[in-house]
Amino acid sequence: MRKTLFNRLLLSYMPIFIIVVTFTFFVFFQVLSEQSRKEALNANKMLSLQAMRLIDTSLKAIDNMVMMETINNKELFDFFNNESKSNVFTNISAVKKMRDMIASYPMIDSIYLVRFEDNFVLSNATSDQLSNYMDEPFIQRAKDPLVSKQWSGVRNFEQFSVKGSKPVVSLVRGAPFITGEKGMIVVNVATDSLRSSIADLYDPKTSFIGLRDAVGNDLFSDFKTNEQTKIFSNYVSSYTGWSYQSGLVNGKVFHVISSLYNVWFIIGIAMIVVGFVWLLYVTRRNSKPLEQIVARIRGYRLPLSKEGGDEFSFIESALSNIIEQSNQYQQKHEEDRHLRTRYLFHQLIEGDTGLTHDEWVEETSSLQLPYASDRQVVLVIEIDKYSDFCCQFSRRDQNLLKFALRSVIQELAPKYELELWAEWTSAFQLSVMVFTGSEEEASAPQILQLFDNVRAWAQDNLKFTVTVGIGEQVAQLSSVADSYKEALRALKYKIVLGENRLITSEHIANHGQAEVFSHLNAIRSIIQSFRLLEEEWKTKYDELFSEMKLGLLTKDEIMNLMNYLIYYLGREMAGMTKEFQEIWVLDGLPRLSKVIDDCHSLEQMREQSLSVLNSLYTGLLEAQDRRLHAGTIRDMRKFIEEEYANPNMSLDYLSSTFNINSKYVSKLFKEETGQKFVDFLIDIRIQVAQRLLAESQAPMQEVAEQIGYTSAISFSRVFKKIVGCSPGEFREEAVRKQIG
């Protein structure tokens, strides 16, 4: 028997097979090509972003340095506040400071200071009156309070006529920093330095970067627009307002090649259409014999059909039933119920549902959710030490444990006559919406008892603990977002109140929250004692953590304070000897930063950070003991602390007492303590003066004499410079605090 039907079907569908295979290969290679094109574009965009971030970071570092020096640097302060305008030493000190700033930040091209009182300009290379200075027009514009004090656009700066001008961008900061009434500091950065800073990011043979200031002037550009170049990305810095443009050198050619993708795509669609038409034709032609057979079978009746139908009737009935059930299932599950439920939950806690009461009833009915009652409350269950949880369990075990936690909550809720709705809103937070009755007082104890049992069950049966943040009960669905925010806010205090517990708004309200900035002085005092290698820094450190715990600070606030401690400690270490700096950079800073980042509780942070600081303190002591004159300086410090009230206390007095040259004493004191002799003596005297002013009513002259000043006027002037207020004002404030 010849296989005529088989051969005919084979030859009929062979062209379709060839078209499908061809189109599959075509799609594969086109998708691969398109993916390569997109990756090239993304890489080019990242080039612009990286260049923008690199330049912004460098300029911000310069800006921060200028700000800190304006606030803290004595040489600059003396220049702007010097009563004798022709004080050569003050000018030389200011020039030296400017050169140190340029040495620390090589990107800086030049710096000059402008003193408004006598219109005097002092740069790192020259000085002159403002009217004779080459950059006078820019200074006059910068004086205008309406002019932005951020980085300027590109401009030509000429310091010496023989050298000519160069394009720069400039930063203007007032002195003092807040008011700017004394003068200004101008920092110039050459555009060539900006270009050099990003030169290693790209190959100029294949790509380019252009940089324009806020008004569209080119700071630099290593390309010229032509038919071979095309800009693919353009980003504007939020810090400087400059625009960064990048693209490919052969961008036009790249664009033309990539556009061929559309042509090939049209060809592919045409091939599909041809194949579909051919499929209809072949199917129609080959189905005619089958239709004739089916028609003949339908016209034939078997005796069996009277009882239950023939075989084809049974098959037809079964197929009809299957098709009907499939249509119902597809209609019923047109949208996945689980995804809709999670989406609705997120809308509720984010406060953007916009559903009316009737719409809510309809939605909860279709999704089989609890019906909203008179009041709702949101709780957030957070897995403690989530990083350890991820390291301890595999991804599969993590999902299983999370499922177990959620299931336990849903199973225990009916025992307390509560209805709830739980969804994982993040990898480590399970949010629960509890629907309560109209009486808040009656349902609150049940909620607390339920979730305390959940917490205890997790502790006993799972290998991790949870902390529960509880929001306020609300009456409207639109207020659910407020309850959710309150629950999240409660969890922020977990680091202080402790893990594995329930935290409500009452726990937070029972503590008086302290101002974060009130701890900055304590941190500075700790670091100064630590730098001077005094044992009392440990006591102050414990007191700091006690105050943070009593003040009920959030985790973010505590992290900010500890980061400030690291910053200030690093700043103080930078003023010490090179050996001390290496101990800090190589050992102290990495360990202390890791401890602060990894801690989950305030007590853990205190213990581990104290251990690191003790180790660093021991290393500094050993390093100091190895130095030749460490013992001598310690004796000097002890002598000063005992004889601070001696009005003759000076470098010459120390020199004669310890039989060492006065200039060498000053140098040794600075190297070993990081602090000048005069500053150390003034600090001791001012501390004693503050105690005397707060604890006694002695006259100012008597207080001055008790701390080593023969004149009350000199004492008042020094006190106000250090403390920021006069001795009388300080005493009045101390009395008010004692009364309060």
Automatic annotation (TrEMBL):
PANTHER family: ARAC-FAMILY TRANSCRIPTIONAL REGULATOR, HTH-TYPE TRANSCRIPTIONAL ACTIVATOR RHAS. Keywords: DNA-binding, Membrane, Transcription, Transcription regulation, Transmembrane, Transmembrane helix. It holds the Pfam family GGDEF_2. The chain crosses the membrane at residues 12-32, 260-281. Residues 634-733 form the HTH araC/xylS-type domain. It comes from Paenibacillus aceris. The lineage of its organism: Bacteria, Bacillati, Bacillota, Bacilli, Bacillales. Gene3D superfamilies: Homeodomain-like. InterPro entries: CdaR_GGDEF, Homeodomain-like_sf, HTH_AraC, HTH_AraC-typ_CS, Tscrpt_reg_AraC-type_HTH. This is YesN/AraC family two-component response regulator.
